[in-house]
Design brief:
about 675 residues, mainly beta, Porin, 2 domains, about 10% helix
Length: about 675
Amino acid sequence: MLHSTRRTLSRGALFGAALLPAAANAIDWNVTGSVRQEIGIGIASGENEFNQNGNPFNARSVPVLTNNPLNGALLRSDGLRADANTAPVPTTCKFSTQVACPAAGRANTYGAGLDDSFNFNLFSTRLDLDVQARISPNWAATMKLRAVYDAVPKLSDGRTGDIFGQPFWHARSANPLEINGASMMADLPAFYVDYNDGPLWIRAGQQSIAWGEALFFRVIDVANGLDLRRHLTLNPAAEEFQDQRIASPGLRLSYTFDNQWEVDAFVQMFTPTVLARTNTPYNVVPSAFSWREGDEFDDAEHALNFGARLTMPMTDSFTLLAAYVNRRNPDGVVRWADAPRSTTLPSAFGTENPFCAGASNNPFAALPGAPTQASVGGGCGSFFAPDGTATSSAFEWFHMAGRTRLNPVLGTQVSINEAPASAFAARSVLGLGNEVSALDAISTLDAFYTGFGGLRGYITREFKREHVISLGGNYIFTAAPDSFLDQLIVRGEVAVTPNKQFTNLGLSREFIEATDVVSALIVEKYQRFSIDMPAAYMVAQWMHRTESDLFGRHLSGNENNGFWPYLDPDTGALSPAARVAGSGQPRGQGSANYVAFAIQQPFPDLVWRADLAVLVDVQGGVLLQPGVRYRPSANWQWDLYANLIEGGGDENDDALETLDFADEIFMRVTYYF
């Protein structure tokens, strides 16, 4: 059941056998495992806009809106179309090498790889092997092997990216004990030894650490980052991130005092959260941007995280806890990154990026005062490289900024001012002033898009150190047997991160800094509704966040529709009443609140179990996850679930709008041995 599973997970972990004593013939071995086929079929009405396949601007001509030095657009500064009898309005366009854009509006035929669909969200075959060894009454060892092959790239028509590669360990892997290819991975999510001697317990090796009791929510569960490549966070809610927590080498120690107070401490190698890759089914980063995280990971690679938790039973019914974690934030804070000096376009791979300072094909390189390669430390000096399938219009820039909770005006300004080569071209050569309004930003963007075509942006994450201070407690009610209050458990968790760093809404190096407070109230209960049925497990929760949303994004980026209503979705033209004099900037929110509920109801023979989990963002978004488990024998299990996600509108004011492309039905067939 869910409750017992959660207790087991709270001591999950991994790593080394070098400490093992005793002779091999004294070891008691136990080897178990499973083979699982997982299939996820998307049922959303539209494609994932963050991927190239689902980008709404594919092969669409977009009008240029404002006058600027490069385009001579025929629109008035108030954003209205000029007289219909004037010359055609210049347009920008996202194109491919196969099919160019039409004169206006949506193309009848799309470029190859630009508008195809994923047939499956998930189609993975998985092997899990669990080896347990009891060496002596005090010593034990565990090794867990996980191997996954995802066939989505072989079964889909869309442009599919590298699913598993990451620029971290060994320049490719997500954790130190992982190997992978584009569609396969194998790692050791547990590889450790345990030592027990009365009140003392020590675990050394590759391990993950699960603290906290919240379902869906992570409050004091901050020791490890998450691996979001396989199924994002959309596994059954009852599993509570057990397959997503990233393991790394560490040492964990627990000691229980005579009064039953327990101290649980760890020190562990830092490992970043791993995001779903661009152009894969669960990606949430626009495909027009590429990650360059190698240098920032190198800076944090050998860092150590450490922390301790004190659990204090005050009475038989009431327990308090306090915890402290000092860590590099595994989620990171995002900023612009220097573009590569060589273009990555397949048609021109390895040639100079013309936007880099000092490049021989840079149109401004020979002008007086132009920055050289040496003057920007040997880097590019720009955050962009040419790419016709990347961002190609001001409208696309504003739309995607809204979808990703960023400020399109500030992002335009920062992407120029913090890059020497871009700043010279825009400010000194073209005479474009600082972007302080939407019209300013549109003018600057259209100057570059009409002059140079589509542009790919480069971004990275910095992993800042932070301190997380947590308090919590639980109370177990006692009442008449079988009454609702009997054995009802009420838990509370609060985590405070002083001076936490958040992504700047313009992706600047000057990050947002604020004290983030995350709290949750949890009520859980086993309840028998019928004498003929086993007890159902139920849990209800409320989470309050003062600075960040469910995914850790700063709330000042919420409520931004990205100007999308001003563009006709069928013709690609401005709607008749369009005005672009608004700011286009997020309004932001002061706090975020979420409510969750889950129930598991086993049937009398325990062969069947019905599940339901619900997550509600009070701003309007809802995730429903109904499911059923069928286990006819110890060897076989069938699971059928659905993820039904409905954002609260198109204002980007609730967290679940980010995932409203991920509606799906997913099935698991597992053979245990």
